C-alpha cells in the first residue's frame, strides 16, 4: 500500500490486528479440500471505471490498483442491468434478470421465479463454508444458503467501515479445514454522497481538483463538480475499506490460494448513468486476482465480458465440470487460456420499480451499440428524478437550468433521453459516451439491422417475456394497477402486497426450459 494510506490502520484496524493476533497462533488445518481455492467476491455500489488502474488520475485507489497489477483487469466488462437487485441476481445466478425473475428492486418486492442454483448453493454442495457481509438485495433471500451473514443492512450512511474487515477475519478464520466463499458488499459509492465519515477517506477529493464533471454527463457546473468531488471521495473510502479487507485475508495466511474478484454492480448515479442503458450505467470495473491459479500479472483484457460470467468462472475454479446451461463463460479461460470473450454483450432493464416502468434492451459488439426502447412514445419517467431532484439524495442529476445553458448537442442528448426513439445506435469507437445517435443515418443502416437481428435472436433464445405481446400487455396492466392502488410506492408499506408477474412470467420462461 502507498505511503499515507497506511495511516488508516492505526485506529480503524486496531481491532482487526488484535483479532488476527488471536487467530494467528492457531495451527492451519490441512485437508484434501485445501487444493480448492477460497473465493472472495467483492461487490461495490454505483460506480463505473473511475479507478486509478483504469486511468482515473484524481482518485486514490492503491489497494484496488494492486489487485489489478497482480492480476487481470477486464477493460470491457458489463452488468446486465444498471439497477442493483437485477444486476446482483445475474452475478449470483449467472442468468439474465428476465431469466431468473429479479427484474426490479428487492426493496420493491420484485423476486425470482424460483430458487435457482446460485454461487453460494453450488459452493455449499462443493464443501465450502459460505458467508456474506453487507446487503444481499435479491429475493427470496432464503434461496442463498449463507452459513454466515453479518452487517445485513445497506449501511448507506457508511458508518464503521472497519467492521467489514473485522467480520471478514472472523469468518475466514472460523472456516476450519473447509475452503470458504465470502461475498463482501461495500456501500460506497452509493448515494447519499458523503465526502467523509468516521475519518474516512483519509485522502479526500475537493472541488479544486475537478476540472469538469464526469464525461458522460455532458453538462458542467460548479455544483456538479462538487458532487463529482464527493463521488470520488467515496471511491477513495471504498479503496481504503478494501485495503482493510485484504489485510484480513493476508493475515489469515490464505491469500495465496484465494481467488479475489472485484467489481461494481453498475454505473454511477449521475445523469445518463444508473437506471439507463447507456455505457455509463452498464460498463463496470472487473478485476480478478488469484496468486496460485493465475500467474499472469498486469494483464489487461479487452475481451467483452459480463457479470453472467462470474458463476461459470467460479465453477471453473473449483471443479472440472462446466455449467453448459448458463449463458456465461469462464473468465479464467479468457484470461489464462486466451480464449475469446463474447461476440455480443446484452443488457435489459425495467427501471426497477412500478412507478418508473420503462423497459429497454441493448446489445453491443466491439464497435457498435444498439438500444431498443420498448416503451418508445412515452417519456422516460426516470429523467425527471435526475433533472428535478425528486429525491433528496439524487442531487447529482443535471438540472433543467444546467441543461438549458449547455450546447445544442448536449441539449439534444438530454431530449433523446427524456423522449427516447424506438432505437438508438452508436459507434462506440468514435463516440464512447453515446452523444451522437446514428439510427437515422443511411450509412449505418446495415450495421444497425444486423444488431437488431442479433438482439431479437437473443431475446427469443433466452425467452424474454417482454418480447411476447401478451406478456408485455400483462405486466403493463399489472404496473398500471399497482400505480393506481399504491401511488408513490406505497405498496412498500403493505405487508400483504405481492407481484403477480413471477407466476405468469415464470410459466412463460420455465415451461419453455422444460419443453
From TrEMBL:
Signal peptide: none annotated. Residues 37-318 form the Sulfatase N-terminal domain. Transmembrane segments: none annotated. The keyword Transcription regulation does not apply. InterPro entries: Alkaline_phosphatase_core_sf, Sulfatase, Sulfatase_CS, Sulfatase_N. It holds the Pfam family Sulfatase. Keywords: Calcium, Hydrolase, Metal-binding. One of its GO terms (molecular function) is metal ion binding. PROSITE patterns: PROKAR_LIPOPROTEIN (PS51257), SULFATASE_1 (PS00523). PANTHER family: ARYLSULFATASE FAMILY MEMBER, ENDO-4-O-SULFATASE. Belongs to the sulfatase family. This is Sulfatase. It comes from Cyclobacterium marinum (strain ATCC 25205 / DSM 745 / LMG 13164 / NCIMB 1802).
Amino acid at each position: 500500500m502507498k505511503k499515507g494510506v497506511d495511516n488508516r490502520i492505526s485506529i480503524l484496524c486496531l481491532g482487526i490486528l488484535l483479532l488476527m493476533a488471536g487467530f494467528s497462533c492457531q495451527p492451519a488445518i490441512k485437508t484434501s479440500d485445501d487444493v480448492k481455492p477460497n473465493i472472495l467476491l467483492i461487490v461495490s455500489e454505483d460506480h463505473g471505471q473511475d479507478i486509478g488502474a483504469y486511468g482515473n488520475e484524481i482518485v486514490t485507489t492503491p489497494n484496488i490498483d494492486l489487485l489489478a497489477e497482480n492480476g487481470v483487469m477486464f477493460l470491457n466488462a458489463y452488468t446486465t442491468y444498471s439497477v442493483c437487485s437485477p444486476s446482483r441476481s445475474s452475478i449470483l445466478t449467472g442468468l439474465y434478470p428476465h431469466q431468473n425473475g429479479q427484474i426490479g428492486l428487492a426493496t420493491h418486492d420484485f423476486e425470482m421465479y424460483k430458487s435457482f442454483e446460485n454461487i453460494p448453493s453450488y459452493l455449499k454442495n462443493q464443501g465450502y463454508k459460505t458467508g456474506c457481509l453487507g446487503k444481499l438485495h435479491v429475493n427470496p433471500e432464503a434461496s442463498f444458503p449463507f452459513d454466515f451473514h453479518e452487517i445485513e443492512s445497506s449501511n448507506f450512511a457508511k458508518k464503521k467501515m472497519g467492521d467489514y474487515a473485522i467480520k471478514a477475519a472472523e469468518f475466514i478464520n472460523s472456516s476450519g479445514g473447509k475452503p470458504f466463499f465470502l461475498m463482501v458488499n461495500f456501500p460506497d459509492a452509493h448515494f447519499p454522497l458523503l465526502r467523509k465519515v468516521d475519518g474516512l477517506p483519509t485522502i479526500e477529493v475537493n472541488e479544486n481538483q475537478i476540472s469538469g464533471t464526469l464525461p458522460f454527463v455532458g453538462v458542467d457546473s460548479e455544483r456538479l463538480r462538487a458532487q463529482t468531488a464527493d463521488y470520488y471521495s467515496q471511491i477513495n473510502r471504498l479503496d481504503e475499506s478494501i485495503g482493510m479487507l485484504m489485510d484480513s485475508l493476508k493475515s489469515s495466511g490464505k491469500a495465496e490460494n484465494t481467488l479475489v474478484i472485484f467489481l461494481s454492480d453498475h454505473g454511477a448515479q449521475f445523469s445518463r448513468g444508473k437506471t439507463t442503458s447507456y455505457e455509463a450505467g452498464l460498463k463496470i470495473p472487473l478485476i480478478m486476482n488469484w496468486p496460485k491459479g493465475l500467474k499472469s500479472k498486469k494483464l489487461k483484457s479487452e475481451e467483452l465480458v459480463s457479470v453472467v460470467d462470474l458463476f461459470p468462472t467460479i465453477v471453473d475454479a473449483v471443479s472440472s465440470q462446466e455449467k453448459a446451461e448458463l449463458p456465461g463463460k469462464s473468465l479464467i479461460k479468457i484470461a489464462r487460456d486466451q480464449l475469446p470473450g463474447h461476440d455480443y454483450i446484452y443488457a435489459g432493464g425495467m427501471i426497477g420499480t412500478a412507478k418508473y416502468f420503462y423497459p429497454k434492451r441493448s446489445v453491443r459488439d466491439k464497435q457498435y451499440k444498439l438500444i431498443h426502447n420498448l416503451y418508445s412514445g412515452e417519456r422516460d419517467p426516470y429523467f425527471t428524478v435526475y433533472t428535478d431532484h425528486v429525491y433528496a439524495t439524487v442531487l447529482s442529476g443535471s438540472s433543467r437550468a444546467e441543461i438549458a445553458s449547455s450546447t445544442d448537442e448536449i441539449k439534444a442528448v438530454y431530449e433523446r433521453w427524456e423522449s427516447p426513439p424506438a432505437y438508438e445506435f452508436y459507434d462506440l469507437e468514435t463516440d464512447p459516451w453515446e452523444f451522437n445517435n446514428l439510427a437515422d443515418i443511411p450509412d449505418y443502416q446495415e450495421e444497425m439491422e444486423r444488431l437488431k437481428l442479433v438482439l431479437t435472436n437473443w431475446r427469443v433464445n433466452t425467452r424474454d417475456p417482454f418480447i411476447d405481446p401478451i406478456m408485455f400487455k400483462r405486466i403493463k396492466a399489472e404496473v398500471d394497477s399497482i400505480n393506481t392502488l399504491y401511488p408513490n410506492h406505497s405498496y412498500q408499506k403493505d405487508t400483504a402486497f405481492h407481484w403477480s408477474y413471477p407466476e405468469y412470467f415464470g410459466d412463460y420462461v420455465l415451461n419453455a426450459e422444460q419443453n
